[in-house]
Amino acid sequence: MKPGDRVICIDDRNWYAIPVRCICAGLIYTVNEVFTCKCGNVYVRLLEVDKYYNMWCAGCDVTEYTKMFFHIERFRLAGEEESREEIDEKAEISFPYLN
After folding, report:
1. Which of 4, 14, 26, 33 is deepest in the core (most CB within 10 A)?
2. According to the model, what pLDDT value does residue 52 have?
3. Distance (Å, whole) CA 30 – CA 47
4. Helix (H) or strand (E) holding 30
5. What gap in Å lies between CA 12 and CA 86, rounded to an integer?
6. DSSP for 59-94?
7. What average pLDDT score do residues 88-98 get?
8. Cβ-contact 36, 42 below 8 angstroms
9. Contact, 72 vs 44, CB < 8 A?
10. How far out from the chain centre does Cα 94 lie?
11. pLDDT tens for residues 38-90?
């Protein structure tokens, strides 16, 4: 993955005691940044999630107030099989109160 890539969230579960917010399985996001922490964990920042939060790296066991980031394993590249209609349909299911 690289900045500008469209990715689909495949895992929005809470892995740790600190809850994961702002991502939803099945929705498409745009990668803003890919970086490797000093412990070796690889993370992404997303254009659609541009907010600051106390983020925790499990490998380093360090908490830092920074722009939200997520484990790269939570996403896969969005392929051509995700048509606009399928994305819109998933959004309606995930967020019925917005429609």
Report:
1. 26
2. 86
3. 6
4. strand 28-36
5. 19
6. TTTEEEEEE--EEGGGEEE--TTS-HHHHHHHHHHH
7. 50
8. yes
9. yes
10. 15
11. 999 999 999 998 888 888 888 888 888 988 899 999 999 998 665 555 555 55
What are the angstrom distances between the C-alpha of 68 and each of 19, 57, 90? 12, 11, 23
Residue 66 is encoded by which pair of tokens?
């920074």
Cβ density class 1-28: b for 16+ within 10 Å, e for less = eeeeeebbbeebeeeeeeeeeebeebbb
Helix (H, G, I), strand (E, B) or coil at 36: strand
Strand 75-77 to 70-71 pairing: unpaired
CB-count exposure of residue 96 (10 Å: 0-12, 13-18, 19+): exposed
